[in-house]
Structures are given as C-alpha cells and as structure tokens.
Specification:
- There is one protein chain.
- This protein has 5 helices and no strands.
- By secondary structure, it is mainly alpha-helical.
- The radius of gyration is 12 Å and the shape is globular.
- InterPro entries: Cro/C1-type_HTH, Lambda_DNA-bd_dom_sf, TransReg_Diox_bact_type.
- It holds the Pfam family HTH_3.
- This is Helix-turn-helix transcriptional regulator.
Length: 76
C-alpha cells in the first residue's frame, strides 16, 4: 500500500486527538502492533484499513485522499 496511506492514518488519528493505545484497543491489537501499521512496517490489508477507518470515523476514501496542507497553510 502507498506510504502516504500510513502517514495519513497517523495524521488523522492525531488531529482527532486519539492515542495509539486507544485505536489499538478498538482494533483489538497491541499498541506496538498498531504502531507498526502507522510506520508502514507491515502490509495493511483492506479489511484492517476498513476497521481503522471506522475507529477514526472517516471513510477509507478519505484516508487515501487526505491532505494535511488543506488544514494548515504552510506558506512562509
């Protein structure tokens, strides 16, 4: 899966003020196992992506298309 997907999962979780521990518990997995997903250390299955999107309360499409720059203007 595209590296951006893993980054987007982390960014969305952080913007929603959810901890890794909370998301991991909702997914019935260890925090370290969930951390591997956010870092892209493991391949993400479609079914796990759907589960994550439900916990984050966003669509899977949103995870793919999420762009942090839409929320924060990064001009200097």
């Amino acid at each position: 899966m595209n590296r951006k997907v893993y980054e987007n999962i982390r960014k969305i979780r952080e913007l929603k003020n959810l901890t890794r521990e909370y998301v991991a518990a909702e997914l019935k997995m260890s925090p370290s196992g969930y951390g591997k997903i956010e870092r892209g250390d493991v391949d993400l299955t479609v079914s796990k992506l759907i589960e994550i999107s439900k916990v984050l309360d966003v669509s899977t499409e949103f995870i793919f298309k999420f762009d942090i720059s839409l929320f924060f203007n990064d001009t200097k």
